[in-house]
Amino acid sequence: MNLILQGLAADRSTIDRIATMADAQRIVQLNPDAYRCEGVGYSDALKTKIDSECFAARLDYAFVEAGRKLGDFSLVAMDMDSTLITIECIDEIADMQGLKPQVAEITEAAMRGEIEFRESLTRRVSLLKGLDASALQRVYEERLKLSPGAEKMLAAVQAAGLKTLLVSGGFTFFTDRMKTRLGLDYTHSNELEIVDGKLTGKVVGSIVDADEKKNTVERVCRELDISPKEAIVMGDGANDLKMMGISGMSVAFRAKPVVRAQADVALNFVGLDGILPLFD
C-alpha cells in the first residue's frame, strides 16, 4: 500500500517520523504539502496509530493501493452543503428569519445521525414559512462559498473524463446554480415550495434523504453503464453514509465523527483537491 500524508503546512520531520512508524520503503514528495510513503504494510493497528498521530499533527492521511489512477473511476458524486460549499444553505436562509440557532441545532443533530433526515428537513423547512423567496438569492450571492480546493478538484476530474453528480438534501435553487457555474453533469435535490413569492414551509415532492441519495448514485451509474464501485463519493453527514457505502472510494470531507469512522478517506485539514495526490 501507499500511505499518502498531506497538510496545509506539512513539516518534513513529522512526515519522516510517521513514515518510519509505518515502516515505509520510500518517501516521494508529490507537491509542497503532500507526500507518498511507499511499500507500507497495512493493518488495522497501524491505521489506528497513524490516525492518532496525523490528527495531532493536523495532517490528513490515506492508505491507497499502489498504482491506483483517477482514470480508474468514472464518476464523482458529491454532497453540496458543507462539502462542495462551506455553508448549510438552510441555516443561512433561516438566518434571514432570525431563526438560525433553532434551525442549525436541528441540522447538526441530523448530520450526527441523531435525528432521521426526513424528519429534520420537514421541521427545518416548516420554520421558513412566510419568508420572502428573495432570501434565497441573497444567500447565494452573499454567503455561498465553494469549499477550498473545489474548483481545482473538479477541473482535474473533468479533465480525466469523469462525470460529476451533485446530490443534496439541500435545494434546487442552489444545486441548479452550481450545475451551471461549475459545469456539473447531474444534480438532484429538494425543491422548496414557493407561492406568491413566499416560502410555504413545505417541500415539493419526495425528500432527498439518505436512501434517495444512494438511489440517485445507483441510477446515474446505470445511465453511465458503470458499477457504483467506479464512483468516488464525497460527503460530511450521516445522510451521506449510504451513498458513500456503495462507492469504490468514499471521502469524508470536514465530516462528523460517525462519517469519518466509516469512510475510506477523511480530509479534515486540506481542501477537496486533497483527493488528487491519492492517485498515481
UniProtKB/TrEMBL annotation:
Species: Noviherbaspirillum autotrophicum
Pfam families attached to this UniProt entry: Hydrolase
Enzyme class: hydrolase
PANTHER family: PHOSPHOSERINE PHOSPHATASE (PTHR43344)
Pathway assignment: Amino-acid biosynthesis; L-serine biosynthesis; L-serine from 3-phospho-D-glycerate: step 3/3
Residue stretches spanning the membrane: none
Keyword Hydrolase listed: yes
Assigned EC number: 3.1.3.3
Reaction(s) this enzyme catalyzes, per UniProt: O-phospho-D-serine + H2O = D-serine + phosphate; O-phospho-L-serine + H2O = L-serine + phosphate
Gene Ontology, cellular component aspect: cytoplasm
GO BP, one annotated term: L-serine biosynthetic process
Residues of the active site: D79, D81
SUPFAM superfamilies: HAD-like
Name of the protein: Phosphoserine phosphatase
Cofactor(s) listed in the protein's UniProt record: Mg(2+)
Similarity annotation: Belongs to the HAD-like hydrolase superfamily. SerB family.
GO MF: L-phosphoserine phosphatase activity; magnesium ion binding
Keywords, ordered alphabetically: Amino-acid biosynthesis, Hydrolase, Magnesium, Metal-binding, Serine biosynthesis
